[in-house]
Amino acid sequence: MESTRQKKIGVTLQKDLTIILQKLLKEGAMGSIIASVTKVRVSPDLSSAKVYISIFPVKNTPAIFDLISQKKSEIRNSLGILVKNQIRRVPELFFYNDDSLEHIDSIDAALKKNEDPIKNTSLLEKRKKI
After folding, report:
1. Structural domain boundaries enclosing 119
2. Contact indicator for 88, 70 with CB cutoff of 8 Å
């Protein structure tokens, strides 16, 4: 269970990382891509943070994560400048793809069809491959 301090730092990092990522995408000539930080989980010792990012359109996800991995130190440095008055040490950042929107869309599409997704194993096999 997260402490109050972890939650506060997570919210602060989420807001600032969203700003940094939007700026990074504009500079990288990827202005038509929407990337948002959906969740930040901070470790109990505040030394690391898992950052979950949702990207639209989904087909650009690998390219965005390549860009993020190349610019990881710049992102952390920019974050340090933004949060210097709130946090002593900027946590090590680990970026993950948040595919919950894709999962919701696949469930929604399955519900709109007349097919039973439980009986139709091809839908389940597609999800397992991803």
Report:
1. 100-130
2. no
